[in-house]
């Protein structure tokens, strides 16, 4: 690789002002608008890169040291911080340059499902705004047809070695290269679509199979469905946090479904058969004669499919006998005839009983 000083046509002890003047002169001569052509374009990039390095005091110093021109580089005596860095921190960068490819971040989205979808599970196609691999450079970060070039400061190692004079003698310290940021390569022509990141923000569709039996608060992990990593790195994971909507009729207790069935007083007295529209089809239940409020009718295996394991919970139906509040004259006469025909029952105190909903709750929940 050409020497930066030679590229700009200045001596190694040139002042910053001399370097700036040399760059401006060459930039005017080689600018693509003035001097079109591939050769001039490449020369312009080379001149610009040389100026970027030599116009920065720190990068220029590193360049001079990396080129074997600096000796001690005017560092003088290193402090105790350099000594401790040498023995406890140095060497960590000598294992080679770090990779631009990194794992993408995990993502979390919340999904709301209905109680009826929870019974057997459901499928969703979710629209997610996330980072995806750049379709222009396919994660290389470079403009198509180009590739990263070896850093001429660290010569591809990703770190700069310095000889420092200390109380213990001459020691070597290592620090990340400031020019390539420890990558060992420089992207001279970044991809215009992703600005050299290798990924862009976009909306994509993620197909999701939500298993049966999930409940509010459950998190599902989808490995590799999160954000794409920089420079074509592997995707992170996608987490789905489930929320089950409240149903107007049915509620849930574990894997069981709970509901209340209101029955007429006459049906409770005489008994009847009722058809109930459950979440997954009609269910027929039988009320025996003399059914009381608070009794529980259990329909086996008509609850929620178990998330872990096999089988389903039960459908548990609490009975509420509805006493009419308004009677026609004929209805009242019939009830009076029934009362007269039955053995008189004098109202009397008995053990305190909870209200219907409290009794149902206790029986539902065991």
Automatic annotation (TrEMBL):
<keyword id="KW-0143">Chaperone</keyword>
<dbReference type="GO" id="GO:0016491">
    <property type="term" value="F:oxidoreductase activity"/>
</dbReference>
<dbReference type="GO" id="GO:0008270">
    <property type="term" value="F:zinc ion binding"/>
</dbReference>
<dbReference type="GO" id="GO:0042026">
    <property type="term" value="P:protein refolding"/>
</dbReference>
<feature type="binding site">
    <location>
        <position position="180"/>
    </location>
    <ligand>
        <name>Zn(2+) 2</name>
    </ligand>
</feature>
<feature type="binding site">
    <location>
        <position position="194"/>
    </location>
    <ligand>
        <name>Zn(2+) 1</name>
    </ligand>
</feature>
<keyword id="KW-0862">Zinc</keyword>
<dbReference type="GO" id="GO:0009408">
    <property type="term" value="P:response to heat"/>
</dbReference>
<keyword id="KW-0479">Metal-binding</keyword>
<dbReference type="InterPro" id="IPR001623">
    <property type="entry name" value="DnaJ_domain"/>
</dbReference>
<dbReference type="Pfam" id="PF01556">
    <property type="entry name" value="DnaJ_C"/>
</dbReference>
<feature type="binding site">
    <location>
        <position position="134"/>
    </location>
    <ligand>
        <name>Zn(2+) 1</name>
    </ligand>
</feature>
<comment type="function">
    <text>Participates actively in the response to hyperosmotic and heat shock by preventing the aggregation of stress-denatured proteins and by disaggregating proteins, also in an autonomous, DnaK-independent fashion. Unfolded proteins bind initially to DnaJ; upon interaction with the DnaJ-bound protein, DnaK hydrolyzes its bound ATP, resulting in the formation of a stable complex. GrpE releases ADP from DnaK; ATP binding to DnaK triggers the release of the substrate protein, thus completing the reaction cycle.</text>
</comment>
<feature type="domain" description="CR-type">
    <location>
        <begin position="121"/>
        <end position="203"/>
    </location>
</feature>
<comment type="subunit">
    <text>Homodimer.</text>
</comment>
<dbReference type="InterPro" id="IPR036410">
    <property type="entry name" value="HSP_DnaJ_Cys-rich_dom_sf"/>
</dbReference>
<dbReference type="InterPro" id="IPR001305">
    <property type="entry name" value="HSP_DnaJ_Cys-rich_dom"/>
</dbReference>
<dbReference type="GO" id="GO:0005737">
    <property type="term" value="C:cytoplasm"/>
</dbReference>
<dbReference type="InterPro" id="IPR036869">
    <property type="entry name" value="J_dom_sf"/>
</dbReference>
<feature type="binding site">
    <location>
        <position position="191"/>
    </location>
    <ligand>
        <name>Zn(2+) 1</name>
    </ligand>
</feature>
<dbReference type="GO" id="GO:0031072">
    <property type="term" value="F:heat shock protein binding"/>
</dbReference>
<dbReference type="Pfam" id="PF00684">
    <property type="entry name" value="DnaJ_CXXCXGXG"/>
</dbReference>
<keyword id="KW-0677">Repeat</keyword>
<feature type="binding site">
    <location>
        <position position="151"/>
    </location>
    <ligand>
        <name>Zn(2+) 2</name>
    </ligand>
</feature>
<keyword id="KW-0235">DNA replication</keyword>
<feature type="zinc finger region" description="CR-type">
    <location>
        <begin position="121"/>
        <end position="203"/>
    </location>
</feature>
<feature type="domain" description="J">
    <location>
        <begin position="3"/>
        <end position="67"/>
    </location>
</feature>
<dbReference type="Pfam" id="PF00226">
    <property type="entry name" value="DnaJ"/>
</dbReference>
<dbReference type="InterPro" id="IPR008971">
    <property type="entry name" value="HSP40/DnaJ_pept-bd"/>
</dbReference>
<dbReference type="GO" id="GO:0051082">
    <property type="term" value="F:unfolded protein binding"/>
</dbReference>
<feature type="binding site">
    <location>
        <position position="154"/>
    </location>
    <ligand>
        <name>Zn(2+) 2</name>
    </ligand>
</feature>
<protein>
    <recommendedName>
        <fullName>Chaperone protein DnaJ</fullName>
    </recommendedName>
</protein>
<dbReference type="InterPro" id="IPR018253">
    <property type="entry name" value="DnaJ_domain_CS"/>
</dbReference>
<dbReference type="GO" id="GO:0005524">
    <property type="term" value="F:ATP binding"/>
</dbReference>
<comment type="similarity">
    <text>Belongs to the DnaJ family.</text>
</comment>
<keyword id="KW-0560">Oxidoreductase</keyword>
<dbReference type="GO" id="GO:0006260">
    <property type="term" value="P:DNA replication"/>
</dbReference>
<keyword id="KW-0863">Zinc-finger</keyword>
<feature type="binding site">
    <location>
        <position position="137"/>
    </location>
    <ligand>
        <name>Zn(2+) 1</name>
    </ligand>
</feature>
<keyword id="KW-0963">Cytoplasm</keyword>
<dbReference type="InterPro" id="IPR012724">
    <property type="entry name" value="DnaJ"/>
</dbReference>
<dbReference type="InterPro" id="IPR002939">
    <property type="entry name" value="DnaJ_C"/>
</dbReference>
């Amino acid at each position: 690789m050409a020497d930066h000083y030679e590229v700009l046509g200045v001596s190694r002890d040139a002042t910053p002002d001399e370097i700036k003047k040399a760059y401006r002169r060459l930039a005017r001569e080689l600018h693509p608008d003035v001097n079109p052509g591939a050769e001039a374009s490449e020369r312009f990039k080379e001149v610009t890169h040389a100026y970027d390095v030599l116009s920065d005091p720190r990068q220029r110093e590193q360049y001079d040291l990396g080129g074997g021109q600096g000796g001690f580089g005017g560092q003088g005596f290193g402090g105790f911080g350099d000594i401790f860095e040498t023995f406890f921190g140095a060497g960590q960068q000598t294992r080679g340059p770090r990779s631009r490819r990194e794992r993408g971040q995990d993502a979390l989205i919340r999904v709301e499902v209905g109680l009826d979808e929870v019974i057997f599970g459901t499928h969703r196609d979710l629209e997610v705004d996330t980072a995806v691999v750049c379709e222009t450079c396919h994660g290389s970060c470079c403009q198509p047809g180009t590739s990263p070039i070896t850093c001429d400061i660290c010569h591809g190692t990703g770190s700069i070695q310095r000889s420092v004079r200390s109380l213990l003698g001459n020691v070597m310290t290592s620090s990340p290269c400031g020019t390539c940021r420890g990558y060992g390569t420089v992207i001279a022509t970044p991809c215009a679509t992703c600005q050299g990141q290798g990924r862009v923000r976009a909306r994509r569709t993620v197909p999701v199979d939500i298993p049966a039996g999930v409940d509010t608060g459950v998190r599902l992990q989808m490995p590799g469905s999160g954000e794409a990593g920089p420079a074509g790195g592997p995707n992170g994971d996608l987490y789905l946090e489930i929320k089950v909507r409240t149903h107007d009729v049915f509620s849930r207790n574990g894997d069981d479904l709970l509901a209340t069935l209101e029955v007429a007083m006459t049906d409770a007295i005489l008994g009847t058969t009722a058809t109930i529209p459950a979440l997954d089809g009609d269910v027929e239940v039988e009320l025996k004669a003399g059914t009381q409020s608070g009794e529980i009718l259990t329909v086996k295996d008509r609850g929620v499919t178990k998330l872990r394991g096999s089988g389903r919970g039960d459908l548990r139906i609490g009975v509420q006998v509805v006493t009419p509040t308004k009677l026609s004259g004929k209805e009242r006469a019939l009830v009076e005839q029934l009362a007269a025909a039955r053995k008189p029952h004098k109202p009397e105190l008995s053990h305190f009983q909870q209200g219907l909903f409290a009794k149902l709750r206790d029986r539902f929940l065991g």
